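Hi team, as promised in this morning's meeting, here are the two structures we talked about. I've kept the exact order from the run log so nobody has to guess. The first one is mostly here for context; it's the second one we should focus on when we meet again. Sequence first, then the predicted structure tokens.
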Amino acid sequence: MAPHGKELSEDLEKRIVALHKYGIGYKIAKTLKLSCSMMAKTIQQFNRTGSTQNRPHHGRPKKLSAHAQLHIQRLSLGNRHMSAASIVAEVEGVGGSACKCSDHTPHTASNWSVCLF
């Protein structure tokens, strides 16, 4: 479960689960000065997974470094008529590799869009 706001400490999450197992209901929230929804989500996560720790995120790994992404944003805002091939040349000059294809074939301007993002 991905956190949407402030994350609770592990100690506090363990206390919530322990009090819940002991049989204390929604008074846990009042005792620990938490919102009822935060306490309920912690208990639901524990009941579903058996743990209160966040699971690793799924999804595609990032291809560009944070520095290279920021550089691309600045380039595109500074010159809106810049082509994808010239942006790639600039990003590779900064030190980030824009294309991490496994086949290592040279790219033409027509197929850069496939590898950029």
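And here is the second protein, the one for discussion:
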Amino acid sequence: MTKKDIAQAVAARTDVSASAAEEIIGAAFDVIAETLAKGDDVRLAGFGSFETRERAARTGRNPQTGEEIAIAASTSVGFKAAAQLKRAVNG
């Protein structure tokens, strides 16, 4: 399902046009991304929580040549589903 598909589903369930729903969904995703970029967590009740996780620098290996390469430290995003979402998915 794409962002456009989500916007169309929201528009069908509400009294909002598809283009307005797409703008709202886009704005919500932007707010989530900006909040995570600042290092803050995002918690959506009944859905789950997004958090940033620091990954340490490490040495990797090129599988084709076997050459060692340095992999820089980075920040990744993690998601943990809420119990309510897990129940909905599992029936």
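Starting points for discussion:
The chain has two domains: 1-39, 41-91.
Residues 1-39 form one domain.
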